[in-house]
Structures are given as C-alpha cells and as structure tokens.
Amino acid sequence: MEISLAKRFKALLERGGQELFDDNRERMTCADLLETRPVIADDDLRRFFLGLDSGTLTIVRGARFNTLDRPLIGGRWGLLSRERRGCRYNAEYLSQIAAYVEAIHELGYPSSRVFFATLG
Length: 120
Fold this sequence. Notes:
Blueprint lengths: L4 H19 L9 E2 L7 H13 L2 E4 L3 E4 L9 E2 L1 E4 L2 E4 L2 H15 L14
Parallel strand pairs: 1-6
Antiparallel strand pairs: 2-3, 3-4, 5-6
Helix pairs in contact: 2-3
C-alpha cells in the first residue's frame, strides 16, 4: 500500500522536528509539531514531492531546504520554525515551493530563469 503524500509530508516534518530538537536541546523542550491552521492543498504536496524527487528541491537536516537557484550548505530556508515547546510548520513555504516547481516542471521555464523568493 502506498503512503499518501500528506502522511509522507508529515513524516518528513516529524523527522525534521526531531533533528531540530536534537540540535537545539538548550532552546527547546521537545520535538512536537505544533498545530498549524492553514490547510495543505493536495496539488501543493504533489508539486513539493515532484520537486524533491526530481532534485529541484533538496531537504537537509532539520527540515531545511534549498532550491536550485540559491543552495546553501545546511539549507537556505526552513520548513519548520523552532519554538520553546516544539516546532511550527512554516506553511507559507509550501505554496511558494509548489509555484517554483510548477514554473520549472509544468510550465517549462528553464530553472536558470526561475528564482525562489519568500513573501517577507
């Protein structure tokens, strides 16, 4: 039986949360994933894993990630934010990653012409 994308994503976040906790025990009390309100869209998950499976997106320790345009050792951005009582999923990144992957893989833009940028 194939695992759903939502369960695969949650497992990725849980693993990243544990790594974040392991690396920051003096700043965190546990590795729990704190509740996040935004609903996760199936198409965003599909594109996220397309990016991951194709190498357009890479995940490193602590659920940090890189895109092709500006990789950084240790990951440029984080899918999780560290808080004293656990980790919070940075929900805004998923839709931005999905748009980045869509531009490259579905709309056919050369990856050299697509720049990942955050809203903030």
